[in-house]
C-alpha cells in the first residue's frame, strides 16, 4: 500500500486508557491494570483483544512511530505494560 508520507515523517499519538486498554471495561469487572489475579475467562478475552491491538499497533509502526498517551498524561513510546501487547 502506498502512503503519501514516509514512515520517518509519520508520528501516531494513541491514547492508552479506553482506546488501547479497555480501562472502563476492566473497572466494571473489578479489575485494574495492576491486578495480580485475573479470572481465566477474562484473561482469554483480553488475550483475544490484545491480538487485535497488537495487529493495529504493528500496522501503525510499519507506517511511522507510535507514541501512547496514558491517563497520567505521560507520553511513552512503545511502552510495554502488563496488558500491553
Give a structural overview.
By secondary structure, the chain is of the alpha+beta class. It has one domain. It is built from 2 helices and 3 strands. It has helices at residues 23-28, 40-63; strands spanning 11-15, 65-69, 75-77. The chain has a 3-stranded mixed β-sheet, with helices on one face. The radius of gyration is 14 Å and the shape is elongated. The model is unreliable at 77-85 (pLDDT under 50).
Strand content: 15-25%
The strands making up the biggest β-sheet line up spatially as 1-2-3
Coarse shape: elongated
Mean pLDDT, nearest integer? 78
- The counted number of beta strands is 3
Rg from C-alpha positions? Answer: 14 Å
Order of helices and strands: EHHEE
Largest beta sheet, briefly?
3 strands, mixed
Count structural domains: 1
Number of helices: 2
As residue ranges, the low-confidence spans are 77-85
Helix share bin = 25-40%
Quick overview of this protein structure:
With 85 residues, this protein is α+β, with helices and mostly antiparallel strands. 35% of the residues lie in helices and 15% in strands. It has a three-stranded mixed β-sheet, with helices on one face.
Topology at a glance:
Elements lengths: L10 E5 L7 H6 L11 H24 L1 E5 L5 E3 L8
Parallel strand pairs: 1-2
Antiparallel strand pairs: 2-3
Amino acid at each position: 500500500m502506498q502512503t503519501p508520507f514516509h514512515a520517518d515523517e509519520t508520528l501516531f499519538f494513541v491514547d492508552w486508557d479506553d482506546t488501547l486498554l479497555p480501562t472502563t471495561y476492566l473497572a466494571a469487572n473489578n479489575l485494574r491494570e495492576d491486578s495480580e489475579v485475573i479470572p481465566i475467562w477474562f484473561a482469554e478475552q483480553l488475550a483475544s483483544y490484545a491480538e487485535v491491538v497488537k495487529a493495529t499497533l504493528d500496522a501503525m509502526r510499519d507506517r511511522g512511530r507510535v507514541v501512547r498517551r496514558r491517563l497520567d498524561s505521560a507520553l511513552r513510546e512503545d511502552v510495554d505494560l502488563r496488558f500491553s501487547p
